[in-house]
Known about the structure:
By secondary structure, the chain is α/β, with parallel strands linked by helices. It has 15 helices and 12 strands.
Amino acid sequence: MNDSIPLPGGDPARDRFALLRAALRLLRPFWPATLAATLLGAAGGLATAALLAQVNRGLQAADGVGAGFLLAFAGLCGLSVLGKAAAGVGNSLVGQKLVAALRKDIAARILRAPIAAIERQRTHRLVASLVNDVEAVSIFTFNVSGYAVALTVTLGCFGYLLALSPALLLLVLLAVAAGMLVTHHARRAWMVDYTDVRDAQDDLQKQYRAITEGAKELRVDRPRRRRVFEVLLGGAVDRIASRKSHAMRLFWTADAVGSGLFFLVIGIMLLLRDRLALEPAVVSGFAIVLLYVKGPLDQLVGALPALGQAQIAFRRVARLAADFDGHEPVALVEPGGQTPELCRSIALDGVCYAYPPADPAGEDGRPGFAVGPIDLEIRRGEILFIVGANGSGKTTLIKLLLGLYPPQAGVIRLDGQPVAEEARDDYRQLFATVFTDYFLFDEVGTPGAGLPPEAERYLERLDIAHKVSLRDGVFSTTDLSTGQRKRLALLNAWAAGRPVIVFDEWAADQDPGFRHLFYTELLPDLRRQGRALVVISHDDRYFGVADRVVHMAGGGIARVCTQAAEGPDDSAAGNAER
Ligand SMILES: Nc1ncnc2c1ncn2[C@@H]1O[C@H](COP(=O)(O)OP(=O)(O)OP(=O)(O)O)[C@@H](O)[C@H]1O
């Protein structure tokens, strides 16, 4: 996938120009349209300033205006209106493209990020970034050339004022500087508010998940429901509202001070008119221009809250990007690399992985859970069970086997050859999985590859054909019972046609009849097709189905039993019981 939308590299908190640079970098792919919109808008802005001068000249002309004046007036009007319209159209075009590119970019980052980083981030934070940060950045960038136009109009107007009276312009600039000082102080305070708002948006997203995904639990638990609604969700909502109102109060106070200063300047000018013997053309020119330029100036000042929120959003996205650093070469758009084959076996040689400590400050002194060193071979056409107590490391082991966690030590070999980091994504294509927290895609099999001809028959085999059919490769419904949905997940894993299928406690929510069918018919059938089956199971009644049973304890392999010998297998050598 094209990684053409670079997100900020610097820290916008410390680097004052990081946001500007990041915005320019974001706009870079669209520079022709951005430049055209900005230039046309700037031309329109300058035409507006010239129009004001023309109006003042017309007002002061003792013997009326002629055809030449009217022609120039009409030309400036046309340029002003068209420039503004063109800038608006160009802006929205660029804005839409930019937002689309930013959304795709964040999604691509998630798709390529290390699984451990995604697990660390938690879904609600990712969703909040996808929704709130993109929104904040887009609101600001949508208007970048609008701000450029406002700035040009302002500078053009000040240029005209300079020509009319440098001394009076100095007075205006003093007022503008005082207004900027007040705004600057207010801005520092409202940035603190907006940072807190953004944190509260994460909390809100978390509580939205709680009330949707935990709807059933909350319906039967009134105290918790009240706490979630009033304290957790309500607290986040109220925090956002009060912090935003505080920020806006500061903004409007600063804005009012700015406007007051503006009118003060006009008042002072009128007061000093006679004392300084100002010409009527100068006074009327200043009055017209100052009243007009207040619009673009307000637009520029009004951009500050959006700018602040965009800055915070950039900081968030930068942090996310940093946490997703070291992403793997995962093909998203171009066809991937080679689809590997499994001829003999996959071997884990001394593979280790340790989670970071739950308390990174290390205050509780507990290290993260560690798995390994693991020596294990998975052979083509065998059923391998991984068993052990809760928390013994079974799922972590299969995440290592699948290449979802990169081994921190040791190596994975495919048919004797080490799997290099660049080939890990290809290697992962050997597997189909049904995790305990699986996600059910309603498109069956490998997208674009068509369905295996026996798919309908397999639905019957799974005793689900009376509920679900396949329409154009899509399940007609997934509104099913828990066990039935899991059968569809199994169908998906089977239809993907991969040489290795991994089941994480698949049978846990199946009825006894179907559980029996799974262990005694489906698994042996899949083995007959030449696939390797790695099955995490607590069903000790069916351990006899496996060719080998790997017993995990405390993150290591305690022993491996083969069915023939029912004793420790040679392949377990080196895995000391813990
Ligand atoms: N995402 C994670 N981040 C940090 N630590 C984790 C994470 N997932 C698991 N662990 C740690 O690893 C240990 C083993 O977890 P794992 O899921 O591998 O166990 P399991 O044998 O599959 O357990 P179960 O039978 O309950 O599914 C956990 O007790 C926990 O301490």
